[in-house]
Each structure stands twice: as structure tokens, then as C-alpha cells.
Amino acid sequence: MNMKKATQLALGIVTAVGGFFDAGNLATSAQAGASFRFQLVWSLLLGTLLVIFLVEMSGRFAAVTRKALPDAIREHFGFTAWLVPFLVLTLVHFLVLASEIGGICFALHLVTGLPPAVWALPVAVLTWLFLWRSTFGTIENSTSLLGLLTLAFVVAAVRHHPPTGELLAGMLPSLPHHDPAKYWFIAVSILGSVIAPYLFYFYSSGAVEDEWDPSYVNVNRGIAFVGMGFGSLIALGAIVVAAVVLAPRGIEVNDYHQAAMMLTDAFPFWGFVLFAAAMAIACLGAGIEVALAMAYTTAQTFGWNWGEDLDPREDARFCMVYTAAILVSSLLILFGIDPLKLTLVTMAINAAVLPFVAIPFLLIMNDRKLLKEHANGWISNSVAAFLLVLALVLAVVSIPLVIMGGS
Amino acid sequence: MKTMDLVRDVLDKQVVDRDETKMGRVDGLLLEIRPGQPPRIEAIDMGFVVLARRIHPRLEAWLERLRRRFGVSSIRKTARYRVPWSAVKDVNPFCVQLDVAALDTPAFDWERWLRDHVVAHVPGVDS
Amino acid sequence: MRNFFSLQSSAARGCGAILVFAAVLAACQHKSPEQELLDKADAVGSWIATLQMAGEKWLANSVPTSFVKSTCKEAGRDLDQAAGEAAKSQARPEVRDPLRQLISQAQAAGASLRRAAAANDRPGAAREAGRLSALGRQLEVWKQGLGPP
């Protein structure tokens, strides 16, 4: 492996970590740990396994065909077949973006004491400015390096010396002792937050922006496994901290205020600021990726010129998509929607729309005409088939769960 | 003889200009029916109104009326325009390449309009 | 590959089935008034514990005053809502009334904690944290008195 590839691998891993942990992971992990201690760790592990395979597939696809997913899916299935998934995904991405903006606003609320709604427009402008002014490379490097701040959750988890036996037992699914509706709602939300659709659209378009070719297939594998695995370690850290700090006190997380003190046992002086900083950075990094995923998807669907490295004058329509997306989704926060409730419901919806993401994606991964020897093998396809069944089950159960457990 | 599957290999494909600037997709294909002779590809159709036809004819009719009434002429042209097949330079696995400059075609009218009327007014973008 | 479109119409029918399923499930969600009260009590207990922790962390200089104030405000809003729902509850009075009393005490403790933090009154905040801790224990006793659902 040459120097450039090694750098790409390192950067890719850091990016994956930065993009993986976001408002959805923080909210669902805190809620899971606080209400069910380690009992829902299995859901995180299952989601991580599936997302590793899916991210690997989307990167492999981009490296081999030099096409990003939306581009290839419209070309192969046609506009009419892609239209419904495209609209559904746009709507979901819009809610996810609002959740991330809400997360940044809440983090700023923690530090300044001003209500989150006050921060909605400044945060929107900041996020937009970041996208407008920078190239793809700078976005990757800056947000992801700062994103390492979220490792505070892992450090705190280690400092608390969690009970190993209980933690290991949580890795296997088990039935809840109380609140079954809430238990399954959180389990589904964790899956939705880990297998977030924007990851694949962002990652495959990013690979095209970075001009990957088939020689990147192995680099891509490394990024997917190490990056997603590492990202999920942070979510695990958050579950552990919530289980050790919040659960024994009887605190359940139905409001971000109830999660905000979770690092202060491990870091009495810095814990509060660290939580706010980690939350803001994680949400900013993810928010930028979601906004870009929306712009990539829309531009590729209609064949417009796209690319974060281009000057906004060269791809005005692409830039207008993320501009409008950021502005409109910040309005949800401006109008005072509770960021945590929005995030939790959005994560369950993420899980519900998984079939829309998975079906065209998995069909195209088996197209030997496109991918030749890089088409899915039997391991990937077994995981894919399992995912498909799971996705269909989730689609059926998640909406009733939102009604029963989400309130 | 080299063959080409129109629906699989051409329809919905990315369209680029001679400098490989992305300028749209093959939203529709127009065949000319000639008496006593096999049909021939006449043109590529592009634009929102063409896409609407693929969803429902009534949606197309409605968008077409809207388009005619729309004030900004450049956007009006982007919503439906036709490129003769004779302008096609190459069809490859990645794209359909046209022997035109995207900036001079209606495909870029909307792009140009946004650039001149919106992007140019954003502080920090020097025009 | 274009058969994918027919997959979608079956997906649309699937969505319809899900909605019906959801409606049926929601209709089946009939709980006894005591059970509903118990669910409410969990949220109340969680806020009491949050307020207590916020008070203690403020005393330990781990969280800023503005955080205590906004937490008390949020808690107050949710507790007010819980109080309203408890007042309307059809549960037996001997079950319902102790909970209503606990909620109103928690509301008062939250408000006092907020005032104490705003005035930088450390002994006052310590007193409220202690009071909240006692309220949390009383709530547990109340829950156990109700027995397993």
C-alpha cells in the first residue's frame, strides 16, 4: 500500500468515526443506558455489523463503478422506480438534519443558558457557511479530527469500571423486565440511528469526489470495518456511562437536560463542557454530512453538476439544495420543537424506511455486469438477506412503536 | 454489429457536454416512425416536464401549463428541451456525451439564472 | 430490473397494512387508571432524580447556574403536566392523592432549587437537594405500595 492510500485509510477511518456518532446515537444510547442499563447493547452490535457491511458495499460500488449510489440507482431502475425512495429519503434526511441542528442548538444552550430556539438560525448560518466556503477535503479533516472529542464517552466508560458480566450479557438479546413497548422502541431507534441512510449516500458520493478506483477496494474495507466499529464503540461508551451514572439515580432520558450531566461523575470539572462540546461537534459533523447527502442525491437524481470541490458558481443548483435544506430544517428548531423527541421519532422513522434504502441497493450490488468480480459474494449476500428481512420487520413494527413507546 | 439497449443503456443516463460538465439526464427518448423503414432515434428529451410525463400524463399537462405561464424565460426553457440525436458524440458506460457546450444550452439556463441572481449576491462570492 | 416498480406498489399496500396494524394496536392499548398513574410516576421520579442531581452537581461546581435554572424550568413544565393528568385520573383516591401530593412537593422543591441557585444560596440548594432525595424515596415507597402491575 502506498503513502497516499495509507493516508486515505487513516483519514477515512477518522471520517467514519466523525460521521457515525451523531444526535441519534447520543439520544438513543443515553436513553437505552438510563432505562435498561446494558440490556440493549445487542441492538447496537447488530446495527454495527449491518452498517459495516452496507458501508463497505457502498464504498466498493463507488470505487469499482466510479458512480455514486443515487446516480447508479436512477440509471438502472429508471426514474419512476427511484422517485418514491428518493422522496421518502429526502423527507427522512430533512428530519435527520433538523435533529442534528437541534443537537448543536441544545449544546449551545447548555453552555450559554439561552434557549435552543434562539440558536437555530445562527447554527444554520454556521453550518451553511462551512459547506459554502470549504472543499470536500477540509470538511472531512476538520470535522473528523474535532469529532475525536466524542472519545470522552469511551474514556468515561472505562473510568467507571462497568460490570463486565452484565455488559457481556447485554450483547445477547433478552426480553425486558419492564416497559416492553419502550424497550422495543429504543431497540428499533438504536438500529435506525446506526443504520442511518445518509451514511451510504454520503460515503459513496464522497468516494467519487475522492476519485477512488478499483484499487481502493481494500482501503474501503478497512475504513468500513475499523471506522464503523470504532464509531460504534463511542455509542457503546455512551450506553455504559448512562447505565452507570443515570440508571442508579433513577433518571430516565426524556429530555436532553437529563443526559447533560452524564460525564460529570467521571470528569467533575470538565464533564459538563465536554458533553456540550462532544454533542455540538458530533452533530455538526453529521449535519454537514446529511446536508451534503441531500445535495448529492438530488443533483445526481436530476443529473445536475455536483461536487463539494467546485466553486458554488459552477454548481449553483447543488449548493442551493443544501442551502435550502439547512434553512428549512432549522425552522423546526426555531419553532420550538423539542430536539430530543424529534431525534427519537426520526430514528424510528429511519428504521421504518430501511426497505426503501436496502432493496435497490442490494439488487444493484449483485449486478455482475456493473461490478464484475467485485459483485457481492455469499457472505455479503447472506448479511444482506438478513438485513432485508430485518428491515421489513422493522418497517412493520416501528410505526406502532412510535405511537406506543415514543410518547 | 454493435447493439445498444435503449432503455437499459441510454434512458436515465447522465448527459455531459464536450468538457464533461454534467448537464442533465436522458429523461425521455424520441423515436421517429418512418413509413416503410425502421424507426430511428430522433432526439433526447430533458427537463422536469418530461419527467412528469413518466409519472402521469395529467401531471405533465399541468406542469406544461405552469411552465408556459412562468415569468422567468430561462427556467421555462430548462423545464423542457430537446437535443437532436445528431448532437450525441458518444454513449459509454458512464454517460451520454453531447457535442455541445452546456453553458450555451437551455440545460444550464436555470443553473445560470441561480448563479447570476442568487449565488452572485451571497457575500464572499466575487462575481 | 424494472420489475422493481411492481415491488413498490406491493410496498404501498404493505404500508397500508402497517397503518391498520398500528391503529389496531393503539386501540388495544387500554390500561387501567392505576397503571397509567404508575407510568406517570416513572416520569415524575425521573425528574425528581434529575433535579436532585442538578442540585448536587451545582454544589460541587460541576454544572453552571444557567443549567440548573433551565433544568428546573423544564422539570417544572413536565411536572405541571403530570399534576394536571394525575388530577384527572380515574384511579382510586387513596392511590391517586398521595401521588398528587408528591408531585406538588416536587414542583415546590424545583422552584426553590431554582431560586436558591439564582441567588447563589448554597445552604438553600443543599436543603432542596436533600428534600428531593427524600421525595424520591417516598415515591419508591408509593410505587411499591401499588404492587406489581
Can you summarize this structure?
The complex is a heterotrimer of chains A (407), B (127) and C (149). By secondary structure, chain A is mostly helical.
Low-confidence stretches of chain B: none
Supply the CATH superfamily name of chain B. PRC-barrel domain
Oligomeric state of the chains present here: heterotrimer
Number of strands of chain C: 0
Low-confidence stretches of chain C: 1-8
Number of domains of chain C: 2
Known CATH architecture of the largest domain in chain C: Up-down Bundle
Going across the biggest sheet of chain B, name each strand in turn. 2-1-7-6
Please, how many domains of chain B? 1
| CATH class group of the largest domain in chain C | Mainly Alpha
Q: What is the 3D shape of chain C?
A: elongated
Work out the helicity level of chain B: 25-40%
Taking the sheet with the most strands of chain B, its summary is: 4 strands, mixed
Tally of separate helices of chain C? 5
Most extensive interface, residues per chain? A-C, 38 and 42 residues
Contiguous helical run count of chain B: 5
Q: CATH topology of the largest domain in chain C, anyone? A: Four Helix Bundle (Hemerythrin (Met), subunit A)
Structural class of chain B: alpha+beta
Plain-language structure description:
The complex is a heterotrimer of chains A (407), B (127) and C (149). Chain A is an all-alpha fold. Chain A has helices at 3-20, 23-36, 41-65, 69-77, 79-112, 116-133, 136-147, 152-159, 164-169, 180-194, 197-209, 217-246, 271-302, 316-334, 339-352, 354-364, 368-371, 378-405. Chain A has one domain: Up-down Bundle (Amino acid/polyamine transporter I), CATH 1.20.1740. Chain A contains 18 helices and no strands. Chain A is globular and about 55 Å long. Chain B has one domain: SH3 type barrels (Roll). In chain B, 32% of the residues lie in helices and 24% in strands. In chain B, a hairpin with a 5-residue loop joins β1 (14-16) and β2. In chain B, α2 runs antiparallel to α3. The radius of gyration of chain B is 17 Å and the shape is globular. By secondary structure, chain C is mostly helical. Chain C is elongated and about 45 Å long. Chain C starts with a helix and ends with a helix. Residues 1-8 of chain C have low confidence and may be disordered. Chains A and C meet through α5, α16 and α18 of A and α1, α2 and α3 of C.
